[in-house]
Design brief:
With about 70 residues, the chain is α+β, with helices and mostly antiparallel strands. The chain contains two helices and four strands; from the N terminus they run E-H-E-E-H-E. A four-stranded antiparallel sheet has the order 2-3-1-4, covered by helices on one side. It is globular and about 25 Å long.
């Protein structure tokens, strides 16, 4: 499970776009969103770099949350 800070994520449209992009590559991925803290937690077979790349390509640059 990986947690990312996604500063540009602010609404349901954002979460839907992120979920669609990640699950297009990993159908079994599970995502949990926290709009208040601008974080997304992803459980996926993809590695952190691949996930960050998908988020960036979708227009939501992300950094690992500690």
């Amino acid at each position: 499970m990986t947690k990312f800070n996604v500063p540009d994520m602010s609404c349901g449209h954002c979460t839907a776009a992120i979920e669609k992009a990640v699950t297009a590559v990993d159908e079994g991925a599970e995502l949990t969103f926290d709009l208040e803290t601008h974080t997304v937690t992803v459980s996926s077979t993809l590695d952190d770099m691949a996930l960050a790349g998908i988020l960036d390509k979708e227009g939501y640059p992300a950094t690992p949350a500690g």
